[in-house]
């Protein structure tokens, strides 16, 4: 870990040196077009104190936010800076009905997100499960939740599109889309340098240089290095969790060989060598528990139904068998009745898994497992724009590659009870063609496109449970093709209608061949060892997957049937060797195909020049997939079907008082079918199609400039989400369960005020507030992962000198030190533990920025 930190520091220093050398080389050309004149409309707005026009690209063309019939929260670079937004998850605090947390359930990743918009998203980050909110960077879809925690360095704007975006943005946008646009190279010299310090030994350095290399060629280079200590102390070894140690860079070129052709070529890099995210043990159970197995397929032996057997939690198994020498309990003696350990366990015995390891403090943990969250990502983007006049052709060719090693100490104790490591390698290549234009003297505007995405990767997970060691994960190979058409026809000067449709053809392949059990500790129990010398789990795996020699133990053997919970086919030998490995499912590739149409239609009417009313319908889908966490063995790879959302929306967009007040309203109803949720089956969480639900709600967003030096923004969101049908496979989720990560109310407000503007410069005060009502962090509504309503405040002050070259900013985030659960995982039945990721504490910062 020390070597990795030193390497990334060396890389950051070299990159910073390169930027400084570049500044020295290019400084003489700074006179080359140093500034761009503001457009006349914006100049007039600023002179009058009105709000600036906000440009969005929700319909694949640049439009005024107030003339776009889509519910959008948009933030430009100035707004991102004023609110101290450093990553994409922090944007959600100021977007109604949006919940993005910088964590991944069932993971120690420090580079992942869990995203929900209007009650729709996904809590599982595995590569076999797609997110429900699409993330796009400079027009390129980011396919995985791992790596989607994007840093906000040199970003032009962020747009959050609420509701299904299945027509123009495609699959996996059933909740909405997050569109991030970088600042592109300009034909002016520009330089920005920034250094920051703060809590936990924070040390951030950022640099940007934009250089016109010729009349038609410009370059923009960005580098950033961010580091701070972990805010959670590991009491076991004196280390920490929850740190930041990240280097990022981007190099972009813009070439305009003719007045019709524009070529944008960019490459980006992000390297993280960090600790595991801050995870706290909040509950522990060391009893035998009812363990539910998955439904057995129709081809299974008679009696193939849902079965519940009595099994030990990992904590219980540790205490009764592996920890027996430490006086943690009497020998287990096989699958007996549920209940506490006979004679009890000393709560203070350091060799035992007990509640002594719960600190009750989110800033401390007894976790003693591996402590890594390493992440390497790089990508390229080639965008070509050709203007034919009324028609333009755009090509976006992109490649992205990422590698991650993520530890997760599942038990939260210093004992090696439960834990695993995700080893992820994945790449994606995409190509999109867009033909946009206007016909009929501008009355008809259209976008016609085609899209292809290729994705390959693997996630190999060695898992440590007290009763067994095994491998989970698998390899994926996905192909997705799509074509789409959307057109806006201006029926009159004030009334427009916009129909659209998209066709998607996708094939997803999953290879689980390295899912095996390689160390079966159930043989440590004398009763089980007499029946299964190599271990009961291995015997079970060999029987289920059909690899063992038949005949030694016949159906009806009490021990084996008690373990399986249903009669096994034929017979099997628990002592037979298996040269092919002890697979937990057949080692064959499986696939899922989807062919879907996702239409949309909207109608809008401009009541006045400053008031737009609209109504819309849209459909989105997210493809099915496979659960890669399998143990004990299963007859086939568990799969799940696509899910769908159909949304109906009405909206009103207004501007008042010469653009001093902007007020937008949207109300919607969404029908959610074949919902994909995460439930615990066997010892593993799996994705199942839960049934159907309905989501109703509204959003209000506003921005005001009551007086010239003051800007105020605010927003309120309401959601009423509930199940209308529940499938048996989703148990224990019921129709009364609450949706995971879906608060009923969200609200926010922020202000900027120039309190002094004089001969020496300008002083600006800023403040913000965000609110979420109560939520559960999992679909089964585990009480351990219930988060009551909370508010978060932030404040800062900035001074900019008269030359506007230097800006000094100081502030505090999470002003009241509110600690709330961002995510977590509860599996008291099998792992015997519940863990939570808590928010960062109150932190101060001081930042000095220079721009030329």
What's the CATH topology label of the largest domain? Maltoporin, Chain A
What is the percentage of strand-forming residues? over 45%
Tally of DSSP β-strands: 47
| Highest-level CATH class of the largest domain | Mainly Beta
Quote the distance from N terminus to C terminus: 38 Å
Main sheet summary? 22 strands, antiparallel, barrel
Say which CATH homologous superfamily of the largest domain is assigned: TonB-dependent receptor, beta-barrel domain
Query: Unreliable stretches, pLDDT < 50, 5 or more residues?
Result: 1-47, 291-309, 331-341, 547-571, 573-580
Overall shape: it is globular
Kindly give the count of domains: 2
Structural class: mainly beta
* Rounded radius of gyration (Å): 28 Å
- What is the average per-residue confidence, as pLDDT, rounded to a whole number? 85
Please tell me the CATH architecture of the largest domain by its name.
Answer: Beta Barrel
Helix content percent band: under 10%
Number of helices: 8
Write up this protein.
Its main location: membrane. It is a multi-pass membrane protein. One of its GO terms (biological process) is iron ion transport. The protein has 852 residues and is mostly beta strands. It has 2 domains: 2-281 and 367-514 and 588-851, Maltoporin, Chain A; 287-352 and 517-564, no CATH class. It contains 8 helices and 47 strands. The strands form 10 sheets. It has a 22-stranded antiparallel barrel. The two termini are 38 Å apart. Residues 1-47, 291-309, 331-341, 547-571 and 573-580 have low confidence and may be disordered.
